[in-house]
Amino acid sequence: MIRKLYEHRFELFLGTQILILFGSLFFPLNFFEDILLPVLFSLNIAAGILLISKKKGLMWFFIALFLIAAVSFGGGMFSKEAGPYIQIRLAVYFIFHIIVTLEIIKQVWQARLVNKTVIIGLMSGYISLGFLGFFLFLSIDLWEPNSFSGILMDNAGFDTRADNLMYYAYITLLTIGYGEIVPVTQIAQKAAILVGLTGQFYLVIITAVVVEKYIRHSTK
Fold first, then answer.
1. What's the CATH fold of domain 2-219?
2. Local structure of 168: helix, strand or coil
3. 101-155 per-position pLDDT tens digit
4. For residue 183, what is the DSSP state?
5. Measured between alpha carbons, how far is 159 from 177 in angstroms, rounded to an integer?
6. How many Å apart are CA 174 and CA 177, to the nearest integer?
7. How far is CA 38 from CA 62, 127, 181, 197, in A?
């Protein structure tokens, strides 16, 4: 069973990412945020653990970590509300997604044959960078309040700021920059530069290598 699921690890992880990002387009907002989103976060974690399941020690470490966190925080572990111990919850997510993103990039990079699975992994890795940008920006906003300003951030509550920072993370990763959110502190500005550069490096290096492998194998 696990072996079969592992063959579709990238599809499962990408599916949960897309639903987390765009589920509110297809479901009523209150139902999505209060009921569906915690379920999707749980499935995303399960899919991430599946991705690192070849590394048994690391896999069991994160299983134990999330079980402890779930017991400690209950349903609040997957909530977007600030609540108590938000820094701990955020740190758990952040570390987990760093490990999973690096594992995705490693598996895509080391793939000898470029097939549908590798392409989906490539897409999932890029979306994962946006999640990492979101966790980075949200961490900065918690530890140094008002690091981000603009019409979407001023006078907004925590849940609204979190939603808007998710949007800002992907706008920065894509180097679009509409200007509704502006990093106003030095650490926020450096973080924005880091996210933008990381997105470009991914496209220029990781994607280029995969495309080169695909062309080379298809010509053979």
1. Helix Hairpins (1.10.287)
2. helix
3. 999 999 999 988 888 889 999 999 999 999 999 999 999 998 898 899 999 888 8
4. E
5. 22
6. 8
7. 18, 19, 26, 31
